[in-house]
Design brief:
It is a single chain. The protein contains twelve helices and seven strands. It is elongated, with a radius of gyration of 53 Å. By secondary structure, the protein is α/β, with parallel strands linked by helices. β2 and β3 form a beta hairpin. The protein has a domain of 150 residues: Trna Endonuclease, Chain: A, domain 1. The chain is 78% helix and 6% strand.
Length: 473
């Protein structure tokens, strides 16, 4: 039994030993697993930290991305602003160049005008000298002709010839005197107008300087009532009209009452009459309070107010429909007069569309200087019309004079043919009419060419040919 127990215990011990070995192996595995778990936990913690860092980086990335987008928008805006500034600078440079070119052109035109005036003066002097010499030669030729005829014919022939010559020469001398008087009047009038034009060019420059000075004196008017402002604007307008050379009551009228088709009354400031029976209306704009506020404060907000005030007045003028007024034949546009030069320039510089805005509404913006230039152009058109009328009268007188001379030559040839016994006297008289470089026929033909007259009938071609042949020889 003891042996049996020993064997049993031994088996049990072997089993225990086996179990211990298994437990030891399991323990080793557990230790290894614990180490691996510790490493794994470290990795997990590291990943958690990495995740947190990633989230922070991601958040920073999102913010940086948003900031980048904002910077991109800001960059685009700055590029757009720079482009717009460049465009404005380029536009200003173009405008500056145009102003410089215009200034150069005005100087050139002024110089050309001076040269033209000098040439006209010289031409008129030459024409007057030519006419005086022609008149003297004609008088001398006719006088010698009459004396020769009277001296070389018998009493009866002399009396008949004297009577015939008086009938011919007296109207001829009258026509020549009228022709000379017209030429002298036209020359004096043209010289006076040219002198006046030179003075007006000087006055235009002085007026621009004076009006700029007057603008400083406008402060009291602008601070006062609208009636005071209106009176000041009308005073400036009246000065411009006086300098224009137009005649009040005939070529322009002030503040007359007119009715439209509905018998509604209007009272335009000025109506200017054009030579072709058309009329231009001028309206004086004097509400410039915003401009004065800008001059005092240099606050640019008043510029916008100033421009808007001008536009409001433009709209009011467009609504008045002056073209429907009775008893005048108004053009399709109105002159809106701004009495301060710089007030209009300030508005146009800050709103380049203002002039076009007004023009579309058939309103033309004018300052004292530009209105004076326009009025001078109108005055010149009136003067040109008067000159045309005078020239037409001169041409008519010259044509009558030419016809008288032609009639004289025809009668003279008839006298030569009908009086055989006066052949010698006739030849002598005819030679005086046709011989020499200063002969009557040559002078008359030259007068016809210079004056541009168109006679109803030419002088005998045979007689003219004889004169030309002798002159050429």
């Amino acid at each position: 039994f003891s042996v049996f127990l020993f064997i049993q215990n031994k088996k049990i011990l072997e089993k225990i030993k086996s179990k211990e070995d298994e437990l030891s192996e399991v323990y080793d595995k557990l230790q290894l697993q614990i180490k691996e778990n510790a490493i794994l936990n470290e990795k997990i913690n590291y990943l958690i930290e990495m995740k947190e860092d990633y989230e922070q980086i991601q958040e920073i990335f999102v913010k940086d991305k948003e900031r980048l987008q904002e910077l991109k928008i800001l960059k685009d805006k700055l590029e757009k602003d720079i482009f717009q500034k460049d465009e404005k600078i380029a536009k200003k440079n173009v405008e500056l160049k145009e102003l410089r070119d215009e200034n150069i052109n005005l100087k050139i035109e002024n110089q050309e005008l001076k040269i033209h005036i000098e040439e006209n003066n010289k031409l008129y002097e030459e024409k007057m000298e030519f006419l005086k010499k022609s008149e003297e030669k004609l008088k001398e030729s006719f006088k010698n002709l009459a004396n020769d005829i009277l001296e070389e014919t018998n009493k009866k022939i002399v009396e008949n010839s004297k009577e015939n010559l008086s009938q011919i020469l007296n109207p001829l001398q009258t026509q020549m005197k009228e022709f000379r008087d017209k030429i002298e009047f036209l020359n004096r009038d043209e010289v006076e107008k040219i002198s006046a034009l030179q003075n007006e060019l000087k006055n235009l420059k002085e007026l621009s300087i004076k009006l700029s000075s007057d603008a400083e004196n406008l402060t009291k008017a602008l601070k006062g009532e609208s009636k005071i402002q209106g009176n000041w604007g009308e005073l400036v307008l009246e000065r411009v009209l006086e300098l224009s050379g137009l005649e009040k009551g005939r070529e322009y009228e002030r503040e007359i009452t007119l009715n439209d088709l509905d018998n509604k009354r209007y009272r335009p400031d000025v109506i200017i009459h054009l030579p072709d029976n058309r009329d231009v209306i001028v309206d004086a704009k004097t509400s410039l309070n915003a401009y004065q506020d800008y001059i005092k404060t240099e606050d640019k907000k008043y510029i916008k107010t100033h421009i808007q005030a001008l536009k409001n007045h433009i709209d009011k003028l467009a609504e008045k429909k002056y073209e429907n007024l009775k008893n005048i034949n108004s053009l399709d546009f109105i002159f809106m007069f701004v009495p301060i030069e710089n007030a209009l320039l300030l508005a146009l510089e800050n709103d380049s569309t203002l002039f076009e805005y007004a023009f579309k509404k058939r309103v033309i913006l004018v300052s004292p200087t530009t209105l004076l230039v326009s009025l001078r152009a109108i005055e010149n058109s009136w003067r040109f019309k008067k000159q045309v009328k005078n020239i037409e009268e001169i041409i008519k007188i010259a044509e009558n004079l030419y016809d008288k001379v032609r009639g004289f030559t025809e009668d003279f040839e008839k006298i030569g043919k009908s009086i055989d016994n006066m052949a010698t006297t006739y030849r002598n008289a005819k030679n005086k009419l046709t011989d020499g470089r200063g002969n009557v026929i040559r002078q008359i033909e030259l007068l016809k060419e210079k004056s541009g007259i168109k006679p109803k009938k030419e002088i005998s071609k045979d007689l003219v040919d004889v004169v030309l042949i002798r002159d050429n020889n």
